[in-house]
Each structure stands twice: as structure tokens, then as C-alpha cells.
Amino acid sequence: MFCDNCGTELADDATFCSSCGNQVKLRDNKNIYIALILTFLLTGLGSIYAGNTIKGLVLLIVRIVCVIFGIFLSIFLVFSLLVWAYSFYEAYRDVQIANGHQNPKLIRDFKSWNRNNKIIAVLIICIISILTVAACISIITADTYSPSHSETHYYSSGSGSSIGSGSSHYGGVDTSPNSIARNDPDWYYDHYEYGDNPDIDDYLESQGYD
Ligand SMILES: [Zn+2]
To answer: For residue 93, how far is its CA from the centre of ligand 1 (angstroms)?
Structure first.
């Protein structure tokens, strides 16, 4: 028998962990990895698996509402990702509570774990964090450069109307819309986004472009 909290090997009749003081109970143990995988598949499902059905459903509903609002305002998609990431922490807490811990706290618990458990925990936290940050960045980036403006659109409109005035833009190696938007915002907005808009021209000029 091993301590759920710190992994120390215990006598079969132990009621407390000799290393961390964790109370040992006879119970239907919930597996943290199953809870994390279920949470990965569906927000809140890990908490439901660990027996906290209400919290799991609340997390799921909040996530769904954020995604629905995200159709109209993409910041809600960022919120929905934060809910997704947070639901892993709640799944961890619910599994620990189901396994007999009175008041699980990740950072405090972490200190009492053995080396292998610490490495696994850090890896899991890193993976969740990287996925969350990468998805948030892609949402924010997609919001700035609308995906509806395709390469095809750029080349067809560029060759038709502005190959004379904008020929220098074809000299460089990278003529993707994004790099043009970075290097020459005024040209980008004129020919790609809005047509020749005097207000935007004036604004960009006042910002030191063009
Ligand atoms: Zn222990």
C-alpha cells in the first residue's frame, strides 16, 4: 500500500502516512490520471468522475456559454480556454477530496510528493499551460488578421489594381499578407483591408507610417 498523497510505502494496516500524515482510508480510490484525461476530453468531466457532479456541470456550462459568446466576441474564447485550464485544477482537488484529503492545495501538496510525482506534475502543468497560451495567442492573432482574407484574394487584388504603384512590395522574399501588414501597414490597409480610406491613411500617417 502506498500513500495517495506522497507515495510513501505504508504498512497494510496503517491509518496515517508515516511521512506526510495523510489519513489512509479504505475507499474506492479515484485515479488522478483518469480524471485529467476526462477533463481534457470534456471540461468538468474529471470533477464529475471524482464525485463532484455539481461543480463539474457548472464548469461545463460556463465553458459552453463562453464558447457561444465567443462566436460574437473572441475574448470569450480566451475565457473558455481559461475555464478549461482551471477545470484541471478542480479535477485534481476533487480527486484528492474523494481519496480522503480534507483540504487539498496543489502547491502545498506538491512539496510532500516524491521526485517522480513532482516531475509528472510539472510536465502536466506545463502541457496544459502551453496548450492554453498557444490557443489564446492563435485566437488573438486570428482576431487581428481576419482569416477571411486569403492569399488568393491578396494576389488577385494586388495584380489587378496596384502592381504599378506597389511593385516594390513584390521585390522582397516574403509577400504574405501578414508580413506586409507588419512592414507597411498603410499599403496593407489600402489594398487589402479597406480600400483607399483617407481616415485610416491619416491615422497611420499620424502614427509615423507611410
Ligand atoms: Zn504520505
So the answer is: 16
